[in-house]
Amino acid sequence: MSTEDTLMNEKFSSVFTAFLDPAVDRPSFIGSWLRAKSIPYSVVEIKGKKHIFIKFGSEAYDPRFKMKTLVAHHDRVNDTEGANDNSAACFQLLKLAETLSQAAESAGPRVHNTRIILTDGEEAAGTRGILAQGSFALGSGFRKLGFSQDEVFVLDACGRGDTLIVSTAGLDRKMGKALADKMMNLHAYTKSIARSAAPESWLALPTPYSDNAGFLAAGIAAQTITVLPSREATALLAATRDFALQGAVLEAVSRNRYGELSAEAAAAVPQTWKLMHTTEDTASTLNAGAFSLIERFLARLTETLEPAL
Fold first, then answer.
1. Quick one: CA dihedral 161, 71, 129, 174, positive or negative?
2. Which whole number is the average pLDDT over 213-233?
3. Nearest to 262 by CA among 280, 288, 244
């Protein structure tokens, strides 16, 4: 069954709809889903944030290859469904976990060197700064555990559109040369995966920060992936030719303040981003094609193994 079929399947849709209920305890909901699928997991609480680590058998890992950590935040702005920010990506990674687990059972174990984490506290950065973001404490823990060589891929707002966006966020950030080099290499690698998975449906564009901000602050290279409708992506691409215009767009999105933008800048802000953090971020704004696009990207990513340094 394709992801498009799955998304439109009544049972899956009802589960997803239940997940969107603003009153739902998300860590508990995700745990129940994983237990129903017999997928092992653990909840790691760090500074009051509950991060969900999905586990695969030791046979899925080979130290000769780089480890890939796939991340999506399960928290959302209070009193919103958070359908695209970030429920869609959570379910995309849950479906990937199910696919990898089922493949191991039916066809025997295969090495994919993939770790999946559903993080908590991404939205905290908007009110209390990067150091309050759950991924900062998580990234700091990675460094202490010797996971600083992990390639971290952050999925955010991946349920609406037809164009895969490989974010350039972080490439111009002030950091040490070693981390900057890792970031550039990770970005180039991600573009190669996007080119393979969606040869005519991807762009590298500046986007707002997500969990990548916390990881970068902790000294861990992290690449954000998102999705936009092609018309919105094209308008944003045009804005990147003017650095001041690009900055105005990203600043307005990060602060949810659009009233002071010029007409040119306002036209460049993706409608998809304007929906985030509002009660309008509902399931009705999502489309099955975005899920198929991410499914192809994740399939290509997990089947590609890079030699460890």
1. negative
2. 96
3. 244
